[in-house]
Amino acid sequence: MSLLAISGRDVDFWMILLVLLLCGIGVVTIYSTLQGSEVSSDSRLHLKQLFWIGLGMAAMVITATITYKVYYVLAPIFYLLSLLSLGLLFFLGDRGAGANRWLHLGGFSWQPAELAKVATIFMLAHYLSGRKTTAGSIKPFLPALAIVALPILMIIQQPDLGTSLVFMAVLVAMLYGAGMKPVDLFLLLSPALSVVCAFHLISWMIFILVLLVVLYRAQPRFLTTATIFLTNFAVGIITPILWRGLHEYQQKRILVFLDPGRDPLGAGYQVIQSKVALGSGGFIGKGFLEGTQTKLAFLPAQHTDFIFSAFGEQFGFLGSLLILLFFLLFIIRGLKAAQMARNRFASLIAMGAVAVFCFHIFVNVGVAIGIMPVTGLPLPFMSYGGSSMITNMVLVGLLLNIRYRWQEY
Amino acid sequence: MTSSRRLHNRTELIPLLVVLVLFGVLIFRLFFLQIVCAQTYRRLSEENRIRVIPVDAPRGHVLDRHGNVLVCNRPSYVVSIVPFKLRQMERTIETLAGFLGMESEQIMIRLRESGRRRFEPLKIKRDIDFKTLAVIQEHKLDLPGVIYQVEPRREYLYGDLAAHLLGTVGEISSGELADLRSSGYRHGSLIGKGGLEKQYERFLRGEDGVQYVEVSAVGREIGPLPNRPAVEAKPGNDLILTIDLSLQRTAEEALSDSVAGAVVAMDPASGEILAMVSRPAFDPNLFSSVIPESTWRALNEDPGHPLLNRAIQSAYPPGSILKVLTAGAGLEVGVINEHTRFSPCTGAFKYGDRWFGCWQSWGHGSLNLEHALAQSCDVYFYQLGLKVGLDRWSDFISSCGLGRSLGVDLAGEVSGLVPDRDFFNNHYGRRNWGPGVLLNLAIGQGENLATPLQMASLMAAIGNDGAIYRPHLVREIRSLTGKSLEQKSDVIGQLPISADHLKTLKKGLRSVVHHHQGTGRQAAVQGFEVAGKTGTAQNPHGEDHAWFAAFAPLEQPRIAIAVIVEQGGHGGSVAAPIAGRVMAAYLRGGGVQ
Q: CA-based angle B294:B86:A247, to the nearest 5?
């Protein structure tokens, strides 16, 4: 119930240890990226990161201490506040470099999208925990879709494709956690798949065919069937039109992802250099501070988006494997918390938090190894950055919270 | 509680599987990158950070026989692009093209041609002036990937002097590069394109050096790579020519700019070429940088063919010069001696039902061999030719070395032509020519062809007791370390004429210049005995070509010369004075060895 009620037995020290290990490796790697003569970043970034870690730990302790019943009550207010701050971006945002992500208020800056992640998880859990899970109908989940769609639409305006997609991952995980059947999940998400397939006529026609088969087998009510089918159809037609409305750099990133060779000096440059860094690290790596790609600044955004490559160049396959192992153990601890929690709200929040981490890890590392488009998502605990560090720590706090209060309803 | 239980079972398995699959994908891919492809990426990361900067070796200098420098190198600035470092390619190239006064498309073509060698600087424009350099330096930040370097540029100190024999250098072509890449040539390498520059390419060209420099992603050079010392460029060898600069100048001045023609002067005792001029000429400096297309086309399509070295690449009917060999044939075959006279010349000679005229329409009267040569009487040599006969005549002329190239150390030497029976059979058909052709051949007209170099060489041989030396332009190849390779003088043949008969011929040639009725009096050099022969080559396309070939002094000659002026008219009045002026300059100047 309160801090005093915590018994050491229930605190997930393993999770705390893993997070601290990853943070520590992150600081050391950030330090290594600042050593080359060509690095133009602030040479004290690793120290700043230590400060962010400290602040994050404080946020983690606070989040972990307050009982989640409070979050349940406050969820709608959080959600509205986060939408408000996202809306404020339209008026007060820092319009630098074509992207509009930062809000400066009261002497410090933060990214409202980070806050929105937590608030949306709360709101979704709040809504979904109050619904009965009835099989065969996807109708109760439409409001859930709306809860996620609002922040996505505002963030995609910034524009930040990667972060918008995080919300999709959260939605899928939490709907699943709330008891939705995979078939229904497929139908719910079918418009998104339609978007992906719409770029290629034949693949889109195959998709529509699969959709029809699934609809026939699942046999939802006529109105639902018609709605799903028409939505998919409309989306498939509108997407190519919207594509032309995308920022040129976004289009380019996606295209270059499909064929990095088409622009080795532009967007594909980042991916090529990242792969060169990782690949040249070999089995045991070039050694700490010996990474030439890192030191000579061939690696772009090496202390943020490409920190995994900087680490992999210096510590090789063994090092990369170790980091992925830490992350895997961390995720498993998170799933364990979701599984153990008896409270439906708490369990859903854990699912959402795990989804955020999974998505970030998979996409960030996926970009570094060239199997994902360049999205600019940070690697949790390791990439330099205050906003993401605090958000991640808050999420860790929630997982710890849920874990040691697992018996509460 | 039951629903909650079910929830827990579900959250357990499927999410865990999804997470494991995702991590499995990442690990599998990392294994592929860091273990399977590690070698490839290791190489790429090395290439990333090491820029190999080639250092051009300076080409060897070209000097005349007395050590006067004719061709050297001077430093010049070249603007290059390191393709790998280019950012915002189109804009950068457009900006650069503007500064250099080029079309963006030209630069794009060069970039494409350079192919995959993205870490090597690619030369865009050579020999830019300081103003352009300053502008580029000023806009350095707008031109990522654009660098400038200093390189040696070929400089021909005397402009078009001896242009044809010195030759030109130019950028290696894609075709040449395909054959020569293994010999150390690169894109943008200079290579000899003509003349001695081409002939002696492998000596003149040094060995390019290499610098290894560690560079950062933005292209800044961090410094030389430890453990990889630079390879010094080795300069090329110097060529010491047989050419005598002052004589070459005299010959250039003597042969007017406004005519087409050639002068070749050589040392009869060695075959060393002392001067070689071809008109019209060109300035080889034009080729040293990237030659503008328009200039190239103008030179190539000029009806005067300025790029042709007429001294060795053009063959003309030798005209009356050949009479000296017809005379030699008569003496050697034994159909005449020095006193023999034929029917007196009346200005024309009737053979069959056709009249063959003498150049002097009022006739020469009765002449002996000496005077027939001196006055170049056609009627005398018609009759002599008929006595010798076609086959013996052709054999004799051929064995004097005509109709074959002499093997001078310049590419493109043509062989000329000595027509024989087979030639006429092949050319006109067995029945379509008669013995009358011999009359024209005997006086050097008709199908006969010879180069100015062959005529100079013939005179040298006559003056030098019949020994034929291989004409050559390079005396010595000297490396910087002082080692040198001397070119020996090879005797490549001997005129099939006995010493007595040579003496007879020389007497006739002397009279050409010294007898008051001689046709070559204008070639006389005060104080020296000159032996020579005029020629007037019939030209079906216009005015006759004027020839003069000579050697001097008569005994122990020091210079042999041939002069041709295309469409100049009479050899005696047009070519002989030019030869006289060149010989005088050489003989009076002492003709230093």
A: 115
* Active site residue ranges of B: 320
Is A332 touching B (CB cutoff 8 A)? yes
Q: Distance between CA A331 and CA A353 in Å, rounded?
A: 10
Please report whether residue B2 resides in a domain.
Answer: no
Q: At what angle do helices A386-404 and A13-33 cross, to 10 degrees?
A: 170
Calculate the alpha carbon distances from A406 to A11, A45, A124, A347, B173 in Å: 11, 38, 20, 9, 78
* Interface mutation vs chain A, best among B8, B34, B85, most A CBs within 10 Å: B34
pLDDT grade for A138, boundaries at 50, 70 and 90 = low
Q: Which helix (H) or strand (E) holds A355?
A: helix A344-368
Q: Which of B312, B200, B303 is nearest to B264 (CA)?
A: B312
pTM: 0.62
Nearest CA to CA, how far is B125 from chain A (Å)? Answer: 23
Which pLDDT score is estimated for B1?
40
Q: Are B128 and B268 within one domain?
A: no
CATH code at B285?
3.40.710.10
User: What domain range is B374 assigned to?
Assistant: 245-588
- Give the mean pLDDT of chain A: 84
ipTM (interface pTM): 0.90
Say which residue the tokens 């498939």 belong to.
A236
Q: Is B567 inside a domain boundary?
A: yes
Dihedral angle sign, alpha carbons of residues A55, A61, A65, A70: positive
Is residue B44 assigned to a domain?
Answer: no
pLDDT digits (tens, 9 = 90+) for B132-153: 888 888 888 888 888 888 888 8
Say which DSSP state B34 is in.
Answer: I
Confidence at residue A43, expressed as pLDDT on a 0 to 100 scale: 79
Query: pLDDT at position A3, please?
Result: 46
Number of neighbouring beta carbons within 10 Å of residue A374: 28
**Judgement on whether residues B433 and B361 belong to the same structural domain of the protein:** yes
User: H-type helices in B289-340, by residue range?
Assistant: 293-301, 310-313, 323-333
* Predicted pLDDT of residue B179: 83
Backbone angles phi, psi at B224, to 5 degrees: -65, 150
Could you tell me how many CB contacts below 8 A there are between chain A and chain B? 138
CA–CA distance, A274 with A290 (Å, rounded to integer): 16
Q: Name the domain count of chain B.
A: 2
Which of B201, B220, B241 marks a domain boundary? B241
**3-class DSSP state for residue A384?**
coil
Q: How many CB atoms lie within 10 A of CB B476?
A: 16
Is residue B42 within 8 angstroms of chain A, CB to CB?
yes
H or E segment at B263? strand B261-266
What is the spatial distance between Cα A379 and Cα A311, in angstroms, rounded to a whole number? Answer: 12
Degrees, nearest 5: CA angle B331-B333-B334 = 60
Q: Which residue of A has its CA nearest to B46?
A: A292
What are the residue ranges spanned by the domains of chain A?
11-33+44-91+106-404
Q: Are residues B292 and B230 in the same domain?
A: no
CB contact under 8 A, A369 and B11: no
Domain membership flag for residue B33 = no
- pLDDT tens sequence across B210-259: 887 777 766 666 777 666 677 888 889 999 999 999 999 999 999 988 89
Cβ separation A283–B38 shorter than 8 A = yes
- B227 and B252, same domain (yes or no): no
| Cβ contact B30–A312 (<8 Å) | yes
Q: Are residues B60 and B129 in the same domain?
A: yes
The encoded tokens of residue B506 equal: 């020389």
Using a 10 angstrom Cβ sphere, with 0-12 exposed, 13-18 middle and 19 or more buried, the burial of residue B553 is: middle
Assess contact for B114 and B46: CB atoms under 8 A: no
Whether residue B288 sits in one domain with residue B230: no
In tens, the pLDDT along A286-302 reads 889 888 887 777 777 78
Read off φ and ψ for residue B86, nearest 5 degrees.
-65, 135
Q: Are B400 and B268 members of one domain? A: yes
Same domain flag for B232 and B362: no
